[in-house]
Input
Amino acid sequence: MMPDTSHPNPIPDELYVFYDQHCGLCQSCRKWLTLQRTWFPLHFIPWDSTSAKSLCPNLSSFEPWKEIVVMTNDQRIYCGAASWVMCLYATVKFRPLALKLAHPTLLPFAKQICHLVSRNRYRLSKLLKLTPSKAHWLPSCTPTTCPTVRPNPLNSNHSS
Amino acid sequence: MNLTVVTYCLYLAVSIALTVWVAKTLHKNGRIFLVDCFHGNTNLADSVNHLLVVGFYLINLGFVALFLKIGLPPINIGAVFEELSTKLGVVLLVLGAMHFFNIVLFNKMRRRAQLKLEPPPIPPTAHA
Output
């Protein structure tokens, strides 16, 4: 049983997460995601970095300053709640949750929550005392230098 | 041969027979789950299946051996059957628990394998 490559939305090999490096909450989310075991590598790139622009020249058209944007290695773009679903989908532990969240009954709620959190992320960071300086625990990186995820023996099967 | 030895012999015979029967059932019917888990790799599935059955035998036979000793020696045939039913009842419950544990394990492995091949649940917003 091999992954279905003919599927219109196939399993990506890599995921680029364009996040807001000036927001403490986003930094904490990045930290949390970095600690998760994932099925494929995740690269975290600040949306306003040159690496982001070189990876996705038309990134600004997806308004990454408003909500998180993720891009697969084959240039599929996911914005807002869809990007969160994709990040959870990448993790070994939370893939079942991602599948549940993507269900038509839950997705509208997920979209509203993501929208609300994104809009108030600076306020929430302040409230939770997650200042960007404190949360700057990882340097900015390029796709080649990014610390991705903990080694996952399951990844080796996927890439083969 | 006194009644205690008769009880031991009957207990061991029935317990071992039951363990062998449950293990054979698991071995036969668990294979299909494992083949699915390991994406059609029958050699690996057979190997894991064999190892699981060996573990099953070790745990169950170990329990049967530890649970062999009876308290007071039976005084008549009726007491032999009472003692046997208590012992075999516990052995059956342990076998049942082990059997369900194995099924849950097979199912978890299968679910995990299916989850790995699950395509993204949400269509892309756009293409770069």
Observations:
- The longest helix of chain B spans residues 77-116.
- Chain B has a mean pLDDT of 88.
- Chain B touches chain A at residues 36, 39-40, 113, 115-128 (CB under 8 Å).
- Helices of chain B lie at 3-37, 42-66, 77-116.
